Amino acid sequence: MNAIVALCHFCELHGPRTLFCTEVLHSPLPQGAGSGDISGQNEQAEEEEGGIQMSSRIRSHSPAEGASADSSSPGPKKSDMCEGCRSLAGGHPGYVSHDKETSIKYVSHQHPNHPQLFSIVRQACVRSLSCEVCPGREGPIFFGDEQHGFVFSHTFFIKDSLARGFQRWYSIITIMMDRIYLINSWPFLLGKIRGIIDELQGKALKVFEAEQFGCPQRAQRMNTAFTPFLHQRNGNAARSLTSLTNDENLWACLHTSFAWLLKACGSRLTEKLLEGAPTEDTLVQMEKLADLKEESEGWDGSEEEEKPSSQPDVVEGQELSKSSPETSLMPDCNSWNVAHRRLSVFRSLRHMRQVLGPSAFRMLAWHVLMGNQVIWKAQDMDLVQSAFDVLRTMLPIGCVRIIPYSDQYEEAYRCNFLGLSPHVQIPPHILSSEFAVLVEVRAATRSSLYPTLFDDEQSLNKYEFIVTSGSPVAADRVGPTILNKIEAALTNQNLSVDVVDQCLVCLKEEWMNKVKVLFKFTKVDSRPKEDTQKLLSILGAAEEDNVKLLKFWMTGLSKTYKSHLMSTVRSPTSSESRN
Question: Where do the UDENN FLCN/SMCR8-type domain residues begin and end (predicted)?
């Protein structure tokens, strides 16, 4: 994260001052940050923490070096600084942490070495301890502008037995130019900076109580009430933060905390590049998640009523999956989650085609693409579930309605994928219907066991698959164009399973775009049939199977897309343009 974190202090003698700041460097270290080789007894102590290599680099400087550094530094002169305004000694080069993962350096010192950064930090420091203060003078606040950057500031008090009011005023500020990023990081920064403040206040409180116990200042000040306040403190007006907390390693600890804060805050939010508009599957998933959230809120706020007494709880769970097919899209809500299966029997469409055979697979895939009901009868629930997981990849998410396993037949309007136990009776008109296909999984005889190609799949060796339908697909039938392309991809052994999956995504998106055009042409614009036929010819979907496929896939369009088209048509500007 390209930001600067700084600790500021309101000095009673010199006003707002920057005590300590940590910045991110993507380039070689500046000269004032302690460049050069360090060896011997002054070699830095290194430690690893969260992927950051910390180097506390301290070396002795001659008075000439200290003078030259002070003269070139944009910070205040030594004469304008007291113990309360100073953090690092004059010969201290600062602290540096190296992030090995990103090759970024986190550098800490009292003031930024760059004059422009020094000016920005100085102005933020003054504003955080003067005019930009929340009620009570202690707490977080946000301010800034495009020119001087945006600031998250958290002011707080540190106990001091020698200070006016027995406390001193500090602030921790985070400065960056990205306003949106800083605002989105508010909860994270507030929690972590509040933790740093609590630690500082806790250490200072222990020192304060020990000093008050040894020499109570309140009674002493009451006895010298008429003595000028600055004189009665005997020159102890300025005390360093290390003295207030009794922690000699305070600045090293603050450097570690600030460096981690910058790294963690930059890692928690990532940018995601979206190329083009979201796909229909993405929109449908978002809509289904929103519907599930509303349903869950309704269930939490109401009591359970009108439970059917004639059906067990298991059937209620099936009804939930039937009425909410979107549960099959989300692993956390799906009762038959892939992660909880004992075995994923069908690994891919190519695997299923090898198991069922080319002709049986083509018949099954044709019915899936046409929107007909696909019924699997098997004793092994995992087998049925894996089959549905593989077959559903050929359809848009909005067209998928699954009842994974049931003890009774369900009508086609409720689901287009239905899993049944072997003893369930299917109505005769369904078995003879051209709008349904049945896959029966039976125990395989010894002579029909699958060849050694599937020896690693022990579950497949136990079954034989019989695919029947009232409308078998003829071998010489052309079929929908997308089915032919899917089979061509599956039979191409040069394509891996992952590549075939990406081909499926592209094919579905291509045909969903045709569905969108057809929907707008027929449902929104209400064009005549002659024009529709011409459009289908242009789209390359004039064949009967392609038309059926487009009509079925039209049911999978998202509500967002449909409402957007309808609102566009109803708007006055669109009507004027059409006239």
Answer: 86-558
436 and 530 share one domain? no
Q: Is residue 108 one of the residues assigned to a domain? A: yes
DSSP 279: P
For residues 440 and 477, the answer to whether their CB atoms sit within 8 Å is no
State both tokens at 40: 């011997």
Check residue 507 and give its pLDDT. 93
Phi and psi at 493, nearest 5°, equal -70, -10
Strand extents, DSSP E, 161-239: 167-176
| Dist. CA 258–CA 268, nearest whole Å | 15
* pLDDT tens by residue, 240-273: 888 888 888 899 999 999 999 999 988 887 767 6
Q: In this structure, what are the phi and psi dihedrals at residue 148, rounded to the nearest 5 degrees?
A: -105, 5
Residue 95 tokens, joined: 């602290």
Give me the half-sphere count of Cα atoms (radius 13 Å) on the Cβ side of residue 469: 24
Q: Which range of residues forms the domain containing residue 549?
A: 499-570
Contact by Cβ (8 Å): 457, 463: no
Q: Dig out the tokens for 104 from the structure.
A: 């970024």
In contact, 460 and 450? CB cutoff 8 Å: yes
Whether 364 and 403 share a structural domain: yes
In the chain, the percentage of residues whose pLDDT exceeds 90 is 37
Cα–Cα dist 440/466, whole Å:
5
What confidence tens digit (pLDDT) does each residue in 517-539 have? 998 888 877 788 888 899 999 98
Q: What is the DSSP secondary structure assignment for residue 496, as one 8-state letter? A: -
pTM, 2 dp: 0.49
**For residue 419, which of 381, 376, 464, 469 has the smallest C-alpha distance?**
376
